[in-house]
């Protein structure tokens, strides 16, 4: 008896091969499948962007920095004070400046970072992204520079080639303010995978940076890597206060939210809004299921009345149409899951094909130049359970409507 309502529901669902009811049934089924597939695809891509920003871009820059023109003889003191914090993984002194880098082919604006190559590799992942040359060459070569792969392509240089680096000189001479220039040898090329960094970041030895910027006695600050990236904005303020109190100084602080915080919040907000808006696709499909169930009840009124006449209870009739709507939701959800996972898995080749076909780059100006994908089981489960729950809830009203049919009134004119 338990399987009989399910058998009747399947019979009703397959009973119409053509006609308006078949169209509505297909619309509800396809609507659920489309909604689930699109939600899986979009949520995986948005989660991928968040993951890439967190694990690639945000790990290439310091989580936070203590800044303020720290004297060279105080660098070790500041690092020693910071090492007392259990939340800090590594620290490294740095010098930062904007400048120009030129070859015989091109001239580009860049951010120049003077770093201690040994300490810096514990603060940033750039040292692990070297694709040509060596990170340790910053110490081995007297005036070596490491640049991104996009910048190297733009300058048309390789490891071993010479480039000119120009930085502003605030010293006022007879001819006014002139830039300082120095010839460097390209000793390494890195690739983070973020165009913004790969085309504008350059690293040199901190001693060379001091000479180039005439800062022989100081550095701009101390880079800090925390165990928890998202706690860095609060922790660096406390650590800066601790350093200032210990050394009687007035250093300030900055953190990753000053440069990428807005982008990170924007991605999370977009992810929520897109998820919310695309959920309406499933909601519309659910309304189609309700419409289909009601129309099926009106078409099968005489059969329902006969079932009730021979002893079918109201709960029996309710189960028929609960199964009816739930089957549409279940099959639509399973199909959507299959389509969503398949398209998401092959998204890279699909996008590459479309880009070559249309001759455009979809993410040419974004912080990464490809569509990242991050499958999260929890998100997929939530999407599927939400779709199933909505279809089950949508089946409740039609099933109640069918159970209230009066057999005597229906069969009076049969």
List keywords for this structure.
six-stranded mixed beta barrel; 2 domains; 414 residues; alpha+beta; two-stranded antiparallel ribbon; 15 helices
Strand content: 15-25%
User: Could you say how many structural domains there are in total?
Assistant: 2
* Helix amount: 55-70%
Structural class given helices, strands, pairing?
A: alpha+beta
Measured between the Cα atoms of the first and last residue, the distance is: 27 Å
Strand order of the largest sheet: 2-3-10-5-9-6
Along the chain, the helix and strand elements come as HHEHEEHEHEHEEEEHEHEHEHHHHHH
Report Rg. Answer: 32 Å
Question: Based on DSSP secondary structure assignment, what is the total number of beta strands?
Answer: 12
Largest beta sheet, briefly? 6 strands, mixed, barrel
Unreliable stretches = none
The number of helical elements comes to 15
Shape designation? elongated
């Amino acid at each position: 008896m338990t399987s009989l309502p399910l058998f009747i529901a399947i019979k009703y669902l397959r009973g119409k091969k053509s006609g308006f009811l078949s169209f509505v049934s297909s619309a509800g089924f396809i609507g659920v499948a489309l909604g689930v597939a699109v939600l899986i695809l979009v949520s995986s891509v948005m989660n991928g962007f968040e993951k890439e920003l967190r694990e690639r871009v945000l790990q290439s820059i310091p989580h936070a920095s203590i800044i303020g023109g720290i004297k060279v003889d105080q660098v070790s003191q500041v690092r020693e004070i910071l090492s007392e914090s259990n939340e800090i993984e590594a620290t490294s002194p740095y010098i930062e400046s904007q400048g120009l880098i030129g070859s015989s082919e091109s001239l580009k604006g860049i951010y120049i970072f003077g770093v201690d190559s040994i300490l810096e590799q514990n603060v940033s992942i750039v040292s692990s992204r070297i694709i040509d040359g060596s990170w340790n060459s910053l110490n081995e070569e007297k005036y070596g520079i490491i640049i991104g792969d996009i910048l190297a392509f733009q300058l048309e240089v390789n490891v071993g080639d010479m480039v000119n680096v120009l930085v502003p000189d605030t010293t006022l001479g007879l001819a006014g303010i002139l830039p300082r220039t120095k010839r460097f040898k390209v000793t390494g090329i890195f690739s983070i995978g973020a165009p913004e960094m790969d085309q504008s970041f350059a690293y040199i030895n901190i001693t060379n940076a001091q000479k180039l910027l005439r800062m022989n006695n100081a550095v701009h600050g101390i880079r800090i890597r925390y165990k928890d990236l998202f706690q860095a904005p609060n922790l660096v303020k406390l650590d800066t206060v601790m350093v200032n109190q210990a050394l009687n100084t007035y250093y300030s602080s900055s953190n990753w939210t000053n440069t990428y915080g807005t982008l990170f919040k924007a991605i999370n907000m977009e992810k929520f809004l897109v998820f919310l808006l695309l959920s309406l696709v499933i909601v519309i499909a659910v309304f189609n299921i309700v419409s289909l169930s009601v129309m099926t009840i009106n078409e099968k009124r005489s059969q329902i009345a006969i079932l009730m006449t021979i002893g079918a209870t109201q709960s029996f009739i309710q189960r028929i149409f609960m199964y009816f709507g739930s089957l549409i939701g279940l099959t639509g959800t399973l199909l959507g899951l299959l389509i969503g996972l398949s398209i998401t898995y092959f998204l890279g080749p699909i996008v590459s094909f479309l880009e070559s076909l249309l001759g455009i780059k979809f993410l040419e100006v974004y912080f990464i130049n490809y569509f990242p994908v991050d499958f999260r089981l929890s998100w997929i489960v939530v999407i599927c359970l939400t779709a199933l729950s909505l279809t089950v809830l949508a089946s409740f009203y039609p099933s109640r409507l069918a159970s209230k049919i009066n057999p005597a009134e229906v069969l009076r004119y049969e």
